[in-house]
Amino acid sequence: MSALLAKPSLRHSVSEWNSNNQQLSATAEHERYVSNVIRQEGRSLRNETNCKTTCDDTDTSRRLSDRAWNVARWKETLETCAQKVDEEMDALTLCKEQTEQALAATSVPLEVSSECLTLRDSRRGFELAHDPVDVQLKKEVELIERVQQVLQQRIEKAFEHLCVLQENRHKLTGDIQNKMDALDIDMSCLSLTIKSPQISLKTNPIRIPPGSSTPQEWLQFSQYNVACAQEAMQVSQQMREDMSLTRAQLQNELDSRRRATEFALRKRNHHEEQARNELEWQIKNTEDEIAEMESDIHGLDADLQAKTASLKLAHTRLENRTNRPGMDLCRDEVQYGLVNEVHQLEATIMALKQKLSEAQHSLQKMKLHHSRMLQDLSRKQEALSLEQRSMTTRTRLTSPSCSDKTPVLLVPLTNSSGRSNLQLLA
């Protein structure tokens, strides 16, 4: 048999085989060492990152909790301030309504005063005098118009400030709503865990949203809203105090002026009654004097007729005695007596005629003055009736219905320090 053919291949020596085995062992040991190091580092990294992640999550949760508590505290502060603003708005609205009622209540006094002036302008003759009642009534009208103007200005200012309070209330409401939304979001974030189904990766979550503010700006914004609301409330409180004080002062002025006017009206009415009674007494005495004068005139006229008859008798006797004949036509004592009688009768008749003329003239003057006094009495009675109508008209100011509309109350006045030791008539 022929010799075996050898396969062509690379043969290694035993030393190379040993070297290869040693290299494989060394490499295995190195790789195991590297793997061990990597495993240890991985475990360390896992422990470290787990701790870091847990700490970060805990810290984030604490910060979220602190932030939520801070937002909740400011929300309560804003809600408390908003509630106070609502209360102040209600108080200012009530004060404004009271002022409007006080303004409406001045319409009756103005109407009454104007009606009294119109009534008293109907007086005639010398009764249409510019007396103290006219002065007081005109002052009363001027005062009521000034009161209406002042109250209207107070009402307008109160309305304007109510708009300011409403604006501050809207700002507080917006801030409260924002804080409620932010609180809901933070509480929702605080409730999330790694097992929550709502979590996911987002695109660029670390971006800064437009319109973001700093914590200082956030705090200053709420502080500014609260400060503005508190300032508006202080102004409103002062305004309410001023309105209450103004109403009380104006009401006192109106009451004082009303009492002065009514006193002047009563005094004038008393003077009118005195003048009427005096004039009635004068008229009665004048009528009595006219009656006596007419009686005396009749007597004078009768005496004049009698004296005329006596004069006719004396004239006839004298004329008849001129027919005596001869020496019997003597100027005897009878002649002298008749002549003296004629002179006496003529003087008497002339004196009677003069006295009758004077009496008739005096009677005419008395009748004319009597007519004037009657006219003046009519005017005085008419004026007195107008005065009494004016007094009756002014009873509307103190009638129960008017008193119900404008009651006299004690209004406590609270100053800026909170003390309320002042009380004035409302």
UniProtKB/TrEMBL annotation:
One annotated Gene Ontology cellular component of this protein: axoneme
Bias class Polar residues marks the residues at: 387-404
Quote the subcellular location field of this record: Cytoplasm, Cytoskeleton, Cilium axoneme
Q: Where is this region: Disordered?
A: 386-410
Which keywords does this Swiss-Prot/TrEMBL entry list? Cell projection, Cilium, Coiled coil, Cytoplasm, Flagellum
Q: Coiled-coil regions in this chain?
A: 269-303, 342-369
Query: Please, one GO biological process term?
Result: cilium movement involved in cell motility
Q: Which family does it belong to?
A: Belongs to the tektin family.
The protein here is known as: Tektin
Species in which this protein is naturally found: Pogonophryne albipinna
Q: Taxonomically, what lineage is the organism?
A: Eukaryota, Metazoa, Chordata, Craniata, Vertebrata
